[in-house]
Structures are given as C-alpha cells and as structure tokens.
Amino acid sequence: MMTGKVDAQFEKEVADYYQSLGIGQGPGDIQYRLILRVLESNKDKITEFSDIRKYTDQFADRGSIGSKMKVVFQRNDLVVKVKHGGYRITNKGLIAANFLKLSTLFYKETNRMDAIMERIP
User: Fold this and answer.
1) 23, 24, 60, 106: which has the fewest Cβ within 10 Å?
2) Within a domain: residue 120?
3) Is residue 92 within 8 Å of residue 77, measured between CB atoms?
C-alpha cells in the first residue's frame, strides 16, 4: 500500500523541463520519474504494480510500464521482484531516487531564478 503521495503533475512539469534541455531519459522521462518516486515512497515495503499504475496510467499504457520495469528497473538492479506484481527498491534504486531529488531541486531553483529575472527591468 502506498505510504506517501506523488505529485504526478509536478513530476510531468519537471520531466518536460528536462526534455526541453534535450534530456529524454532519467530526469526527462515521466514514466521513470513516477515509477521511482512511488518505489521510493514505499522503500520499506513491497510496492505493488497497481500502486505504480495509479500514477503512470495518465501518462502511459500498462504494457509500457511493465516493460520499463523489466528492461530499465530490474535489468539495472534498481528494484528486485519479490512476488508476482511486487517490487522492492534496492540501494542502487535509492541512489537513483536521490538523483531525481537533486534534479527537482535544480528545476525549482531555475524557476525561482527565472521569476527573479523577469521582475528585473
């Protein structure tokens, strides 16, 4: 069961920003961001595939999320599959989640600086 909330619209906004910089994977991939955020919020528990889909369904179909879980997350040891439809984030996955936090902080700081610059005559 999900322990924390993930702001899918904000994650989409951050992903769009990184895509505008030409970064289409990692910080620029909304599916990757959402999956990692959900896994991180359940770091001490098993994350059900249905928990992930609550957030990703508005941006992608089920097949692409399942494929991303196998090809990106399991193959790169970001998660381990512990049962049918159940995943647990690894230490390597937590490092990737920390990187996303840093990329989000950079996005917020950039927006803050843009707002300041717009007010300067």
Assistant:
1) 24
2) no
3) yes
How many folded domains does the chain comprise?
1
Quote the CA–CA distance of 81 and 27 in Å, as a whole number: 23
Confirm if 68 and 48 have CB atoms less than 8 A apart: no
* Averaged pLDDT, groups of 10, the chain, 121 residues long: 76 96 94 96 93 91 86 96 94 97 96 91 78
Residue 74 lies in a domain: yes
Handedness of CA 84, 85, 86, 87 (dihedral sign): positive
Q: CB neighbours (10 Å) of residue 69? A: 21
Other Cβ atoms within 10 Å of 23 Cβ, number = 14
Nearest to 61 by CA among 31, 27, 82: 31
What would you measure as the largest C-alpha separation in the chain, in angstroms? 59
Residues 6+ positions from 17 with CB-CB distance below 8 Å: 107, 110
* Within-domain flag for 108: yes
**What is the CATH number for 63?**
1.10.10.10
User: Is 3 within a domain?
Assistant: no
